[in-house]
Specification:
Length: 153
């Protein structure tokens, strides 16, 4: 396997803290931690506003630039239940609408327990699936298209 920053690599390392698998048009990201700033502010720790918006804009930009057919979040999309404000959920769902790719979340330690089930979390986020491990078949199935040029989401 060739790993690098060149387009002919099997795994392309991207400047936006992500990696891309050209063979499957899969964008890989991890540790986004949406709601972390809100969690810290709730605890009295001063942190600036806007970090989540920047991370979401970067995610949407990377998916578009790479023409990703699938985005796999390798754990910790969210930070903590206390930081998952209505605004955080809404900001992610807005970002989700701008990403034409299928999105799968591999549950990380911060993502677990935020909702009653993985299915409920996927529905709340508006993503295609939440899975417990990388060997889940949902990660490896081929993304399907819906309509002319659109992916089945």
């Amino acid at each position: 396997m060739k790993v690098g920053t060149e387009a002919d690599a099997d795994l392309v390392l991207l400047a936006g803290r992500a990696a891309f698998v050209p063979a499957t048009a899969t964008l890989l990201v991890a540790d986004v931690h949406l709601g972390k700033a809100a969690t810290f502010r709730r605890a009295g720790i001063p942190v600036p506003e806007g970090s989540a918006q920047g991370d979401l804009a970067r995610l949407a930009r990377l998916a578009a630039e790479q023409a990703a057919r699938r985005v796999v979040v390798l754990g910790d999309l969210l930070h903590a239940k206390g930081g998952c404000t209505d605004a955080v959920w809404a900001e992610f769902r807005d970002c989700r609408r701008r990403i034409a790719a299928e999105i799968v979340l591999v549950l990380g330690n911060h993502d677990r327990g935020l909702t009653a089930s993985a299915t409920a979390l996927a529905e709340r986020l508006g993503i295609d699936a939440c899975v417990a491990a990388l060997d889940d078949p949902k990660i490896f199935r081929k993304p399907e298209r819906r309509g002319p040029g659109a992916l089945k989401i």
